[in-house]
Amino acid sequence: MSAEAGRRPFARTGWLAGLAGIILALALPAAPAAAQPASGEKLRQIDSELGRYTIDPAGFMYGMTDGNVLPSNWIIQTRAGDGGAHLRAVHDLMMTAQSSIDITTLGPMPDGAYFDMLRDTLDALNREHRNLYVRILFGRYEDPRQNWNIERLARELTDRLRHGTVNLAVAQIQTKTPALSWNHSKIVTVDGARAIVGGHNFYSGDYVNNTPVFDLSMRIEGPAAISAQRYASKLWEYACNYAKDGDPFWTTGAVAFPNATDWLQRSVCMPFTPAALPPATGTGLQVLAVSHAGIGWIPGMAAFGDIWQRGDTEQWSDMARERAFQMAQRSIRISQQAIQFPTWPYTMHDSVASDLAAAVMRGVDVYVVVSNSDAGLYSSKAPLSDTVDRIYQRIRGLPGARDKMCGHFHLTTIAIGHGERHWRTGAGIANHAKFYMVDDSLFYIGSHNIYAPLASHAGTNQEFGFLIENPQAAEQLLGEYWHPLWESSKIGAYIGDGRCPLPE
Questions:
Q1: Hey, how many other C-beta atoms are within 10 angstroms of the C-beta on 319?
Q2: Residue 177, phi then psi, degrees to nearest 5
Q3: Cα–Cα distance between 146 and 412 in angstroms, integer?
Q4: How far from the centroid of its chain's Cα atoms is residue 273's Cα?
Q5: Best CA proximity match to 98, nearest among 129, 72, 65
Q6: Rounded distance between C-alpha atoms, residue 284 and residue 266, angstroms
Q7: How many CB atoms lie within 10 A of CB 363?
Q8: What's the CA gap between 464 and 182, in Å, rounded?
Q9: Burial class (CB in 10 A: 0-12, 13-18, 19+), 46
Q10: How far are the Cα atoms of 134, 232, 442 from residue 270, in angstroms, in the given order?
Q11: From CA 231, how far away is CA 464, in angstroms rounded?
């Protein structure tokens, strides 16, 4: 089960007032917009290979677009001193909406500052008489302690919208065939023109405080937002089709307003047909959207091609990551909650272990930052020695393997300041990012964890993210996100930088 499971509700607070106490006194100026030439060869190769080995003629599961723009403040990260960055970004994006808003995230229902922000933003849009379709879709995992009452959520969000122009639909989905699978994507897309995609959930207690979970998302403008909208619409198609199914493991609730007592009708689930991905123009930033369908979502999934010969957990996003790691020539940088399943038996994707081991043997520097083992629901419980061993065993016995592993593989847990790994409360610092970068040019930001699901395939979920190859954007991301993260975290690293725990 995801480390986000087993949550507890938090008390509601005034979201704007709550933010005031957590933002750093030092306001940093926005970085200049990154220059955005056409993408490089790696991105084109990945797109080509996805087309060769998988079939997605409608362009819902992956797709390349160009003509995109990264605004100057495109990097969204929660970190020490500022846990409200994502909350503010979502509010600002929603306020630009003219026709539609799609939100997909992991349940349970938003609380505290995130709930207040959603309610207040919908109210503000309604008072401006915006004619909007707003859809919010949650992934549901099985946890009876959590608030899964979406009808109550919908009523509370729309208690001021009874005679307005904002139309809201809310649903929650879970799929199984036979293992549990649920939506885990984190998308906010507006008008099919602007989007936020990444790792942030709508969990006030985890982010909106002075000891936030470290996480990463991104803003984008342009046709890539259509890719996000199309993926959200595909999830809604599933919700519509199964809204009245009697199996409680399928869609377990869906309501729409202003007719709050009605089950969703197709006209409410799918009030518009998402635009097709536009043809390439050869201008602007190229973005490859890659996703994961989980299991049980799309009937007859085998029709999507021989991707299933690789196993039903290896899908578009996995294949993109594998090829990216295999093409690395100088460096691979990874920031994740874990690269093994966060709790026992600590499963690891064979492809991750093999690709990282092969990279080390090529002389590629691999840098990995994961959560601390005592970071609550966001912990990485796998011993770092086990992580190293699972990768090293792929090359043990090869000439020079030990020296290559100790010289090029760098593994540590997340830290702040001068290697501090705990807050003053004693709690371990948590990392929830889903990020990797290859050769300081190609990078992924999205919802897909790098660790493997359990053998039962539980936790094989619906995921979405963007893959971009652009040296200027990567440089900005390195400067604002990676370098500060690594400079603090490398202190006390388990392996690398002269530390070698492997026996002679």
A1: 20
A2: -160, 75
A3: 33
A4: 25
A5: 129
A6: 36
A7: 11
A8: 13
A9: buried
A10: 11, 10, 34
A11: 8
Secondary structure letter of residue 478 according to DSSP: I
Q: How many CB atoms lie within 10 A of CB 166?
A: 26
Return the closest-CA partner of residue 201 out of 116, 119, 108: 108
Q: How far is CA 234 from CA 67, 151, 239, in A?
A: 24, 22, 9
For the beta sheet containing 365-370, the strands, ordered from the edge strand earlier in sequence to the opposite edge, are: 62-68, 285-293, 462-469, 442-446, 434-438, 331-336, 365-370, 409-413
Torsion of CA 204, 256, 124, 68, to 10 degrees: 80
Q: How far apart are CA 197 and CA 219, in angstroms?
A: 7
Residue 43 one-letter amino acid: L
In tens digits, the chain (504 residues) has pLDDT values of: 444 443 333 333 455 544 444 333 223 333 344 444 344 899 999 999 888 766 676 678 899 999 999 999 999 999 998 999 999 999 999 999 999 999 999 988 888 999 999 999 999 999 999 999 899 998 877 664 455 677 778 778 877 777 788 888 888 887 765 557 789 999 999 999 999 999 999 999 999 999 999 999 999 999 999 999 999 998 888 777 765 444 333 344 444 444 433 444 545 566 677 888 998 888 889 999 999 888 766 654 433 333 333 444 458 899 999 999 999 999 999 999 999 999 888 989 999 999 999 999 999 999 999 999 999 999 999 999 999 999 999 999 999 999 999 999 999 999 999 999 999 999 999 999 999 999 999 999 999 999 987 755 555 789 999 999 999 999 999 999 999 999 999 999 999 989 999 998
Q: Do residues 185 and 463 lie in contact, with contact meaning Cβ atoms separated by under 8 Å?
A: yes
CA distance 101 to 133: 6
Cβ atoms within 10 Å of 278's Cβ, excluding its own = 12
Question: What Å distances lie between residue 350 and 16, 57, 413, CA to CA?
Answer: 45, 29, 22
Yes or no: say if 34 and 284 are a contact pair by the CB < 8 Å rule.
Answer: no
Both structure tokens of 118 = 């959603």
Answer for the pair 162, 195: CB distance below 8 angstroms, yes or no. Answer: no
Rounded to whole angstroms, the Cα distance separating 351 from 132 reads 43
Residue with tokens 């008072």: 127
**DSSP bridge pairs for 212:** none
Q: Is the dihedral angle over the CA atoms 101, 103, 108, 114 positive or is it negative?
A: negative
